[in-house]
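Inputs:
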Amino acid sequence: MIAILLGAPGSGKGTQAKFLSAKYGLTHLATGDIFRSEIAGKTPLGIKAQSYVKAGKLVPDDLVTEMVAARLNSKEGRYLLDGFPRNLVQAQALSSILAQEKMSVNLVVLLKISQELALERIVSRRVCSQCGEVYNVQTKPALNGKCGICGGAVVLREDDFEVTARKRLMVFEDITRPMIAYYQSEFIFKEVDAGLKPDEVSAALAIFVDSIFAKS
Ligand code: AMP
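Outputs:
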């Protein structure tokens, strides 16, 4: 079972990916989270990726696809891909990785959101620098800037500063959006309105995923 969650930065991919992976027993593979943890650990991959992530640019395709290939295997078999693929080269690379493992993509969801709302959400987002828990200055503020789970400092992600966030939204429009056609024509594809409340988005996603399971 391979599910792909697509959406611009700020569309709520992380939140919905957590919901879907828990509900359907999928391993959540979030390339952005992996890069952030490699950068924090100052690993060779983190050092190579750092300047791209900080600038809101895409990390080179070979680094990303190698990293994903190393984490996908047919024994585990059930994955939710979040933040990958992000362009046509990565989509084609994923198809060949999956073919080698005798797996294929079962469903693709696009979280649809306006650029204005996405930007508003990104600049209000804060994250715990230790455990990664996500906060929001309006809807889920952190008490005294500390994480309620681990006590870590809750901060604005470096690539969530407005100027970088705008760049990431442009990258999505210019590079990722054209890739979506690859899946629209080939796979079981659904667009969900990500402007709704998180619970409503989750409910819409669950109806779609259940319908796919019912057919298979
Ligand atoms: P995200 O948390 O998914 O918004 O990703 C944060 C950053 O990680 C992006 O702005 C890119 O710099 C990098 N990144 C994550 N996934 C990919 C990918 N599939 N291809 C290239 N860069 C990526």
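Remarks. Residues 162-186 form the longest helix (25 residues). The domain at 2-113+176-215 is CATH 3.40.50.300 (Rossmann fold).
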